[in-house]
C-alpha cells in the first residue's frame, strides 16, 4: 500500500493525528485531557449557596426561589465519560481549501477527541446528519471505536446539494435519545435554517454541550478575484458576482459579521462554550486556546 493510500485509511489518519496532534496536546496539557471538559458524567450530590464564579448552568432555580437566595447543584464526578458527536455533514461542510475543507477539519477533530477519550476508558458515539439523520454509531469505548468513526466518516457520501440544513433535527435527536448525562459535541458550520437555538438550549439542561464551529476565512471576506461564478452549496443557487467591486465586498463582509454576531449571541444565550476551528488554523492551537479560555473562565 502506498504512503498516500495509507494516509487516507482510518489507521493512517489515526497514526497521523497521534503524531501531529495528540502527542502535542499531551505535552501541552500534561496528560490532563479532562481540563478540556467539566460538568460531564456526574450524579447529583448536594446543594449549596451560589458563590461568585460558579457556573450558572447548575443553578437550581426552584430551590433558589423557595430559599430567596441563589443555590447551586453540586455533583459527584463519574469515572467514565460518555461523549456524543452530533455531526453536521450537509453540503456546506465541503467548502474550503481543496486539501483541507471543513469536512476534513471535522474528521480530524472527531478522531482526535475520540482518541483522547477512549484511551482513558471512556465511551464515544456519533450521529451523522446530511439532509436527515443518516447514521447512528452507538457509544462504545476502545481504539476500535475511534477507527470505526474514522472509517464511517470517510465512507459517508457527500451530498451534491440538499434542502437548507435543519440543524434542529440533529439536536432534537439528542434530546430524545441521550438519556444519561453526557458530553455532547455539536460539530457544524451553523449555516442552517433558524430554529436550532431552542433545542440547543434544552440540550444543555441535562448535558455538557460544546459547540464546535467550523469556518473558512473566505466565508467572512471575499478576495478580489474579479468576476467569479458562485454556487450555494446548500441550495444550488448560482450567480455571477463582481468581487472587484469594493461596495459588494464590503456588503458581503458586513452580512457575514452580522451572522457571526448572531451566532455568538445564540451560543451565549444557550449557555454553550464554543470551540472555533478554521480551515487555515492548526487544530492543536485551536484546542489549546479553547482549554485556556475555559480555565480562565473557571478561575
Describe this structure in words.
This protein is of the alpha/beta class. 40% of the residues lie in helices and 22% in strands. The chain contains 9 helices and 10 strands. The longest helix is centred in the C-terminal third of the chain and has 25 residues, at 246-270.
State the separation between the terminal residues, measured CA to CA.
50 Å
Percent in helix: 40-55%
Number of separate strands: 10
CATH topology of the largest domain: Rossmann fold
**How much of the sequence is in beta strands?**
15-25%
Low-confidence parts:
1-6
Q: How many structural domains can be distinguished in the coordinates?
A: 2
Structure class? alpha/beta
- Indicate the CATH architecture of the largest domain: 3-Layer(aba) Sandwich
Subunit arrangement of the protein: single chain
Q: What profile does the largest beta sheet have? A: 6 strands, mixed
**Top-tier CATH class of the largest domain:** Alpha Beta
Tags for this entry?
disordered N terminus, two-stranded antiparallel ribbon, alpha/beta, globular, 299 residues, single chain, six-stranded mixed beta sheet, 10 strands, Rossmann fold
How are the SSEs placed, and which strands pair?
Blueprint: H1 3-7, H2 10-29, E1 42-49, H3 61-67, E2 71-77, E3 82-88, H4 102-118, E4 123-129, E5 133-140, H5 143-155, H6 167-177, E6 183-188, H7 197-203, E7 208-215, E8 227-231, E9 238-242, H8 246-270, E10 273-278, H9 283-298
Parallel strand pairs: 3-4, 3-6, 6-7, 7-10
Antiparallel strand pairs: 1-2, 4-5, 8-9
Helix pairs in contact: 2-4, 2-5, 2-9, 4-5, 6-7, 7-8
